[in-house]
Amino acid sequence: MDKKFYITTPIYYPSDNLHIGHTYCTVATDCVKRFKKMQGYDVFFTTGTDEHGQKIQEKAKEFGMEPKAYVDKIVANIKKLWEALDIDYDAFIRSTDEVHEKNVQRIFQKLYDKGDIYKGEYEGYYCTPCEAFWTEAQLGEGHTCPDCGRETHLTHEESYFFRLSNYKDRLLELYEKNPEFIEPAFRKNEMVKNFFETGEGLEDLSVSRSTFDWGVKVPFDDKHVVYVWIDALSCYLSALGLGTENSKMDEFWPADVHFVGKEIIRFHVIIWPAILMALDLPLPKKVFGHGWILFDNDKMSKSKGNVIYPEPIISLYGVDALKYFLLREFSFGSDGSFNIEKFMQRLNSDLANDLGNLLSRTVSMISKYNDGIIEDKNVSEDVDDNLKDMAVSVVDEVEKAMEHYHFSNALESIWKLIRRTNKYVDETEPWKLAKDENSRDRLLTVLYNLAETLRIVSILIHPFIENTSLEIRKQLGIKADINWDDSKVFGLIEDGTLVEKGNVIFPRLDINEEIEKFNAENEALLKSRINAKKSEETSNSKLQDIKEEVTIDDLEKLDIRVAKVLEVIDHPNADKLYVLKLKIGTEERQIVTNLKSKYSKEELTGKKILVLVNLKPIKLRGVESVGMLLAAEDENKEISIASTLEDIKDGAKIC
Ligand code: MSP
């Protein structure tokens, strides 16, 4: 097969479970795969997870876990979600996959050898949650991140840089010669304006970090890990098996389209093509930047408690209801607001009233008036031509809309036909025809036309809502394999086909009741996720930075005793030190301590403290110190001298 198509979703951060916003892009990508497959393409679809970086490392630490163990759990949930949604991906690439890590090192080395990567020093404002560096000019008010609005911090560090500035002219030429490289067009205008005209997007790019270590090591400098974008973007190549014997690079690279959210377009249309140019690899044909799903016009966030997860929608209303809503309600290139009431309304009007009703009345009438047999008697009237013309022309509209990923328009065209067909029922009034024996052939012709239109609908909706498509075909008794071109012809159902009455495909919902049900389910999931995390936190809350294991014999070597502070004097040669005169059982001795800034002489005099008495004596600023007192220090450098719970004789041994 020589028609190849490569499509990708971004690789998602597994810092938390994915919500409906992430689901949106994956569902859209899956729909394109199914659509292209039906059009005879050999399609490769990549998704995956972006697992390195400071944010993940910090999140894992919060739970007392190693980063890999932490992401493993979330990745398992993500895969479960895609399975529940029947997402037909070909590769799920994890940036921690060994083969990918090797690719990243090879790519980094190659760019370094070519002189496209050099070592320098980075100063910038870093936003940890977004893993992005910003220049001062790019920041929002109060040094906040222009993407997420959170506070950034100024960082200096040694870093490797990619010579992005060298690629400015070739990038501009790319956009000029390929006006469809960035879609929708308004995103391209935004990009060029923001990053090229101000020049900010084309400063050399910092591509390594030395302040954390959860990442792929720079092959020739293990103090550094490869900073996230070279690592993340090259996943699109690793997913095709780059660097393995089974590489599909020749077959599928360059990508036909990368679907990405609007905030990461710039990485895909500036940095990614420049890296590929430096590697002498062909460039992706298109980057499509979709809008965001907001919640009641606000950004979804767990801290605001307004996150919508897909799981409750799937369990209450099914996969197809969710897919249909996502692809129909929002225009792919623009932002849209999720609202559960809108979801219910769509379900009721489009799926239950329009489509569900058309199927159930068609199958019922064929069962009732002709024992379930579909037969064409060819007794046509003008109104039939109108329906037939529309039925075979919708496919054109769908194809045109899908060329530009206008999912919503494609579905709107299909629903125009569905609504037209419902009107055809009202116009032809089969129940009246059934009363008159002379109209029998006309009646069967009308019923045939209804079944035939539904057959065409079942093909057109197949890439969007496959389960429903198959259910329609089952109820119509169609045994033939589904084939895209069959939507272009009217009259393919064979005479004698027997319908199979089935369940109502989308029952009408009582909106108020359902909203309550949904909210309860979504909140329960949110709570259970928070609780699961809490208990994970508790069960994994091991001590951090614990020292090497010792045995009881090691402990036996230490002689720790209770000591009474007899006197506190200033160190003669050091302003910050005290000399403590101690009584330890029968012996008196002195130790030097740096606790002057914390305790006054009065606070210490007369106290019982703990002292390691068999530590080799040393001189501190000319004064001998025989032993060391014990104290506790927390991460904020708060100090407290160790003592015993009750008063006990000095000289007592710690055992
Ligand atoms: N790991 C990077 C992508 C690397 S691609 C080489 C990343 N991950 S992410 O998990 O933060 O976001 C992944 C995608 O989810 C982005 O395209 C982002 O726009 C999308 N979405 C996150 N929230 C969204 C909505 N509320 N609505 C729609 N898409 C949203 O960025």
Automatic annotation (TrEMBL):
Residues 554-655 form the TRNA-binding domain. Its EC number is 6.1.1.10. Binds 1 zinc ion per subunit. It catalyses: tRNA(Met) + L-methionine + ATP = L-methionyl-tRNA(Met) + AMP + diphosphate. Keywords: Aminoacyl-tRNA synthetase, ATP-binding, Cytoplasm, Ligase, Metal-binding, Nucleotide-binding, Protein biosynthesis, RNA-binding, tRNA-binding, Zinc. Gene3D superfamilies: 2.170.220.10, HUPs, Isoleucyl-tRNA Synthetase, Domain 1, Nucleic acid-binding proteins. Its main location: cytoplasm. A motif ('KMSKS' region) lies at residues 299-303. PANTHER family: METHIONINE--TRNA LIGASE, MITOCHONDRIAL, METHIONYL-TRNA SYNTHETASE. HAMAP family: Met_tRNA_synth_type2 (MF_01228). This is Methionine--tRNA ligase. The lineage of its organism: Bacteria, Bacillati, Bacillota, Tissierellia, Tissierellales. The gene is metG.
